[in-house]
Amino acid sequence: METKKTIFSGIQPSGNLNIGNYIGAISQWVEMQKEYNCIFSVVDYHAITVKQNPEELRKRILEITKIYLAAGINPASSIIFQQSAVSAHTELAWILNCYGAHIADLNKMTQFKDKAENKESVSVGLFDYPVLMAADILLYNTDIVPVGEDQIQHVELARDIAKRFNTEFGNIFTIPKSIIRKDGARIMSLLDPKKKMSKSDMNQNNCIGLLDDLELARKKIMRAVTDSGDEIDYDMENKPALSNLLTIYAILGNREIPRLVKDYKGKGYGEFKKDLADVVVRFLENFQKKYYSISDEKVLKILEDGKERAESIAQKKLEEVKKLIGVK
Fold it and tell me: Is-catalytic flag, 66?
């Protein structure tokens, strides 16, 4: 019998998770539970690369976990845990800083360049967090990492670090591969189709939060920008705004884009956006019903159970690594 491959992924507990996060990542995870051993983390140590309000952070950790559960992540079959609860992550990250990670690698990270406007005053953690991400992945013999396009570079770094370590000490780490959702991997802003829909966007009219008020979500869709002309068609180059809205419609409404284009032939943008708003509101209504039915007590129990399951895997790998480098 073939052994199931392992998937690892996580989301930072910062900002408001939106439908872009759901479509691009979480919905994909739900589908993957059928085929893979799945490990999903609330990566709180990644969140603190930028200063967080402690009370808000504690709240967000529970919120993200509830979103995982409401989306359909099953804690009986998948591991759900809080990154900081498993100390092996930071221990391995330090070891990888010394064995495998190079300054030249980190200097190439485009996300750091984008976020660090004044490089002298940002935290070392913001510069170094790709190594912690590599540790997250490598601790669990991860085969596949489902990511957005902006995280491919970080998975490539994890691969490079693993290969270097393996060359020196033997095949201790599984070499992970990234996988990107073909449709909907990158949901764009409602007001600027050249910019990714972001949970940390200062203007929340650019995105629809998973916990948004339903009527507010409807208004955001109706205010979403469209392209010149009046033909409803999927064309990322010439009609990026409409193509983005069609993607949202197709995935949240469980429809095929070519069928949507056919159904709306000869109809205007107004009718299309009204119907899309209905689809989004219906999705959010069902999602939020599940979300608000989950208690904090249930979440804490799931995180504690997930910690024990994750720790049993991570600690074993860490002990192997420590013996190899001579500290054990």
Answer: no
